[in-house]
Each structure stands twice: as C-alpha cells, then as structure tokens.
Amino acid sequence: RALELDLRMAVEQQQLELYYQPQVNTLNHQIACFEALLRWHHSERGPVAPAEFIPVAEDTGLIIPIGSWVLRRACQDARKWPENVCVSVNVSPVQFRTESLLADVKSALSTSGLTPQRLELEITEAILLHDTLNTLTTLTQISQMGVQISMDDFGTGYASLSYIQKFKFDKVKIDRSFVSDLVCSKDNQAMVHALCRLCISLGIGTVAEGVENLRQLRLLEQEGCTNMQGYYFARPMPADQAAIAIEKQT
Ligand code: G
Ligand code: G
Ligand code: NA
Ligand code: MN
Question: Using a 6 Å cutoff on CB, does residue 152 contact ligand 2?
C-alpha cells in the first residue's frame, strides 16, 4: 500500500507536524489548553488528513512510534507556555493495546520537564470496548500520575452513560455533531443540556467542540459548559503561532 510506505518515510524523515487549537475557558475566554492535532504535508500528495492516515497508522502499528513522538513533541512545546496552559493529546485505542503507553507518557513528561497536571489525554469511547480491564488499569496508572483524562467525541460511539462511571474522567468533550446544529435543533439542545447537567453533577468538566458562532457560544454558556473549542475562537495553528496567541492575551 503506497500510503503506508509514504507514511513510514514521513515518520523517519520527521515530516509530521503538530498544530494546536485553543480550548478556552467559558467564563473569561482565556486559553486553558491547546489540543495537539497531527498534520502531514506530503511533497506530492499535498496535505493528507488525519482521518485518512491515522487508520493506516493504526492498522500497520505505525501509530506506536507516531503516538510516542506526538507525546514528546506536545510536552516539549507546552513547556514553553505559561504554567496555567495545558496541552491535550489524542490517544488511539491501539496505543492502549501495547505496553508502551505508560512508558511513553512518563518519558515525554520527564524529558520535557512538564508537570503531569498540564498534560491531558483525549481518548474515545472505543477504548473501553475491548480489553476493558487492562485499559482501565493503564488509565488509572496514568491518572494517578496527575495526568488529566478526557473523553473525546462523547455521544457518537457505542458507549452508554455507564462508561463515564467506569472511570473517573476529568473532562468530557461534547462532539461537534451536537454543537453544529445546536441553534436550530431542539433535540441537540436537549442532548447538550442533559450532558452538561450530568457532568456538573459528577464534577466533570465539559469541552464543546466545533463552536463556530456567537449563538452556539451563548447557548453553551447558559448550559454551564466549562470550556469551548472551535473556529469561532481559532483554527488549529503551528506551535510558533500558538505561543504568540498566548502572549497576546496576557
Ligand atoms: O485535525 P482534524 O480535525 O482533521 O483531525 C481529525 C481527527 O484526527 C481528530 O478527530 C483526531 O481524533 C485525529 N487526530 C488528530 N491528531 C491525532 C493524533 O495525534 N493522534 C491520534 N490518535 N489521532 C489524532
Ligand atoms: O479529536 P477530534 O475528533 O475532536 O478533532 C477535532 C477536529 O475538529 C480537528 O480536525 C479540527 O480541525 C476540527 N475542528 C475544530 N474546530 C472546528 C470547528 O469549529 N468546525 C469544524 N467544522 N471543525 C473543527
Ligand atoms: Na480529539
Ligand atoms: Mn472530537
């Protein structure tokens, strides 16, 4: 498979890059965190979307060296930001199936000197579908180091509400699909309302994804959603621009 070969080359030649998208605090719109998002610009293919190459990386095992690099790079970049700004890293279910994740997290933290509380891992519901015991053990070990765990794309997968009880997540990310139609869809308003109430009751933070306009923002504010992410605030940007964006706001 050609994409696999190109991806292997990209890893070796360090052609992968991390972009960062702010997650702001709903109360003051200050940047609380940056989500690290992989970008790959291939010399002939042009930009290749993560939706295209992440599945290939997962099938071929390349996600292990890639995931390890992402953790190291993200912690190193975050080390240069103010101490109240965190970095959030997407973790593939495949990374949980190998023994390397715990070691990779420890090594990224120790080589960068980033405090564990400033690192967040974003995991999807799919992670809890298989091999639940091992996964929960690893999650608990990482969480006990002080690293924050958030559930990504909540409400779109197979998980039932009981999943956010199986493990004490620090945050739940409300999937973009609920936010994009929020203003027009009473159903989506009901979902977001219920999710925010539930998370408030459980003492879990909420991050709304895909916030693109002021009307969505106002509704989310009313529901007590704690953090927001989306084009309304900023698109994903290179590390040097992320550093500038933080300097500007302080
Ligand atoms: O940036 P974009 O919206 O195209 O990202 C699409 C998806 O790719 C995201 O939902 C995210 O889950 C996934 N993704 C982006 N960066 C990473 C990464 O570093 N690791 C993993 N496992 N997934 C990522
Ligand atoms: O990990 P996750 O699946 O949540 O990835 C977030 C993806 O959503 C990234 O690829 C990012 O580029 C994209 N994204 C972020 N904000 C917005 C937004 O406001 N609108 C849309 N359409 N996409 C967004
Ligand atoms: Na994510
Ligand atoms: Mn998501």
Answer: yes
Q: Which residue's CA is the closest to the ligand 2 atom numbered 20?
A: 210
3.20.20.450, 3.40.50.2020, 3.20.20.80, 3.40.50.620: CATH of 2-172+234-249:
3.20.20.450
- Which residue(s) pair with 237 in the sheet? 20
Q: Please tell me the pTM assigned to this model.
A: 0.96
Structure tokens at 13: 């030649």
Assess whether the C-beta atom of 68 lies below 6 angstroms from ligand 1.
no
Dist. CA 104–CA 106, nearest whole Å = 5
Q: How far is the CA of 182 from the centre of ligand 4 (A)?
A: 16
pLDDT in tens, 17-27: 999 999 999 99
Q: Where are the domains of the chain?
A: 2-172+234-249
- pLDDT digits 0-9 by tens, 188-225: 999 999 999 999 999 999 999 999 999 999 999 999 99
Predicted confidence at residue 130, as pLDDT, reads 73
Closest CA to 170 of 197, 195, 192, 147: 147
Residue 211 CA to ligand 2 centre (angstroms): 9
Which residues of the chain fall short of a pLDDT of 50? none
- Between CA 121 and CA 130, with CA 127 as vertex, the angle to 5 degrees is 155
Instruction: Confirm or reject: Cβ of 92 under 6 Å from ligand 2.
Output: no
